[in-house]
């Protein structure tokens, strides 16, 4: 169903599980995407963040504005990096739990929560090697 990944816009209109990650991208919905992604109830979106320093309140605004999210998993790359307290506070004000972990951990937890039909979102920085 590659035709659903809008050319130039990086948007797939459904929230789906991540089938694989690594080699600088992700596989989902029988497609490959090179680069980072946001996984939201409104679909999957290309995300221009390439490193943990790019995880800002501004880069997460699409997630903050989404409705019906209880948990946000942030895949910070290969390592766990401290999250800006301003980000935690903004999501806490909306009643959203934020977990910043490695991308691999975020993908695995996201898939489990998706399968449980939980209100989960993920912001995943692409990595070269899956762990």
* Oligomer classification: single chain
The helix-strand sequence is EEEEEEHEHEHE
CATH class: Alpha Beta
Full CATH superfamily name: MTH938-like
Count of discrete alpha- or pi-helical segments spanning 4 or more residues = 3
Profile the largest sheet.
6 strands, mixed
Distance between the termini: 28 Å
What is the strand and helix layout of this fold?
Layout: E1 11-12, E2 20-22, E3 25-28, E4 31-34, E5 36-40, E6 43-47, H1 61-65, E7 71-75, H2 85-93, E8 97-101, H3 103-115, E9 120-124
Parallel strand pairs: 7-8, 7-9
Antiparallel strand pairs: 1-6, 2-3, 3-4, 5-6, 5-9
Task: Outline the structure in words.
The protein has 131 residues and is of the alpha+beta class. The protein has one domain: MTH938-like (Hypothetical Protein Mth938, Chain: A). It is 21% helix and 29% strand. The chain is built from three helices and nine strands. It has helices at residues 61-65, 85-93, 103-115; strands at residues 11-12, 20-22, 25-28, 31-34, 36-40, 43-47, 71-75, 97-101, 120-124. Strands 1-6-5-9-7-8 form a six-stranded mixed beta sheet. A three-stranded antiparallel beta sheet has the order 2-3-4, with no helix packed on it. The termini are far apart.
Short synopsis of the structure:
This is Membrane protein. By secondary structure, this protein is α+β, with helices and mostly antiparallel strands.
List keywords for this structure.
alpha+beta; three-stranded antiparallel sheet; Membrane protein; NDUFAF3/AAMDC; six-stranded mixed sheet; MTH938-like_sf; Hypothetical Protein Mth938, Chain: A
